[in-house]
């Protein structure tokens, strides 16, 4: 049986321990759906290659810079963002400008 995803979602039946005979087809169907999902999502689903249009204009330079950053800088930048509770955008941008003066954005 071929995968239904991404055209539609398969309806699954619940299997019960010691009362349901689980045939190889049950797992093979699951495997087909998982393979279809992985092919659709790809290897880097968390990285948007193009702005999907939801990023505010003021953040676009930061998002673009993050997408080009080496992983070490990216890890440091993500730590900075995660620990930015209560900071204004201007304060966060000021910290970025101090840490990475050549990042390409504006103050």
Write the layout of secondary structure elements.
Elements: H1 24-41, H2 60-68, H3 71-82, H4 89-99
Account of the protein in words:
By secondary structure, this protein is mainly alpha-helical. The chain is built from 4 helices and no strands. The chain is elongated. The model has no long low-confidence stretch (mean pLDDT 77).
Average pLDDT, to the nearest integer? 77
How large is the count of helical segments? 4
Alpha carbon gap, first and last residue? 57 Å
Q: Give me the Rg, rounded.
A: 22 Å
N-to-C SSE string, H for helix and E for strand: HHHH
User: Helix proportion of residues, in percent?
Assistant: 40-55%
Quick overview:
By secondary structure, the protein is mainly alpha-helical.
Name the features:
107 residues; mainly alpha; 47% helix; elongated
């Amino acid at each position: 049986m071929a995968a239904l995803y991404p055209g539609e979602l398969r309806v699954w039946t619940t299997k019960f321990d010691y009362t349901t005979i689980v045939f190889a087809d049950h797992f093979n169907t699951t495997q087909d759906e998982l393979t279809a999902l992985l092919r659709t999502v790809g290897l880097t689903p968390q990285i948007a290659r193009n702005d999907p249009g939801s990023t505010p204009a003021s953040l676009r330079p930061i998002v673009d810079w993050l997408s080009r950053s080496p992983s070490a800088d990216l890890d440091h930048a993500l730590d900075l963002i995660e620990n930015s509770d209560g900071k204004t955008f201007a304060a966060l941008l000021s910290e970025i400008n101090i840490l990475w003066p050549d990042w390409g954005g504006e103050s």
